[in-house]
Amino acid sequence: MRTAIIGFGTAGEGRLHAYRTIPGARVAAVLDPSPQRRARARQIDPTVATYAGLPELLAAEPVDAVDICTPPLYHVDLERAALTAGLHVICEKPVAVHTDEALELVALARQQERLLYPAHNYGFSPMMRVLTGAVTNGRIGPPSHAVFRIARDSHARGVPGWQPDWRRDISVARGGIMLDHGTHCAYMATQLFGEAPRTVACVAQWADDDAAGGMDVAARILLEFDGDRRCEIDLSWVSGTRSNRYRVTGPHGTADVHDGLAEVRSVHGAERTDLTPPTRDQTHQEWFGGMFADFAGLVAAGTGWDRPMREVITTTALIEAAYRSAALGGEPVVPAGRVTAEAQ
């Protein structure tokens, strides 16, 4: 499969390295407006063609798919253009910011008979394998309660050559930590619980105490599922430390992943696993192989596309509902995607 990477920042560079380890994957081109970043792509892979704009790339390169790794501001327009050009699309989170955008993109993908695939890489992480394994193999049983806590002392910075602090620019990032880390937590929760939440409630902390500015730097989100099941999500860019914790409780035990250590406790005892990755790379290159294999397999099969495209809708709607709830002071909100995804 010939693929073009669009946006060659931290994520795009990580993707290029990852693609080079996957048999059958071929990065034919890299698109980035920065001459410095295009030069960096050619330095890593002298065989790759580089372009400054999408029309130029589409006119010159026969590609099968694009992998969109730009900041969120550009996602929807690039997705529309690529799908309209007849290309399959992988897109970094968030695929869309508003549910109506997600619905429009999914409809366009179906019309063009092309796959729109969210780059939800945490779904292919070792920690997610531990959590889903504990649920599906019956060790802890169906989740009744989960707690996700993501602590950071700052936002992740971009690369020199193009606005390294774009995550703090609301016009480019389109949101703060809820849209960034919160998106991962949203699809992880819906995958583990097997459905979209019934309601979403959120209280946020805003940069400079300016809610109107829209840049959330911390948030507490409560997802309530059918059957009195719930997931609590605690996010912060201002915690003064760095830590990740995912704890899922079921009727028979608990699965707990704290940074690099996983522990599953059940009636059968406790099992501990070291999940520390071989690299500390923030792009999580080692998770990409499984995600790309899923994408390429779906493209080749021509079926099963509803799963990732439904996830685009439900994840977008969940985060949109969290922002809506935060604007209402924490009042629970029904996510639009709970209804629209079922209808789709």
From TrEMBL:
SUPFAM superfamilies in the record: Glyceraldehyde-3-phosphate dehydrogenase-like, C-terminal domain, NAD(P)-binding Rossmann-fold domains
Gene3D superfamilies cross-referenced by the UniProt entry: Dihydrodipicolinate Reductase, domain 2, NAD(P)-binding Rossmann-like Domain
InterPro entries: Gfo/Idh/MocA-like_OxRdtase_N, Gfo/Idh/MocA_oxidoreduct, GFO_IDH_MocA-like_dom, NAD(P)-bd_dom_sf
Superkingdom to which the source organism belongs: Bacteria
Residue stretches making up the GFO/IDH/MocA-like oxidoreductase domain: 134-255
Gfo/Idh/MocA-like oxidoreductase N-terminal domain: residues covered: 1-119
Name of the protein in question: Gfo/Idh/MocA family oxidoreductase
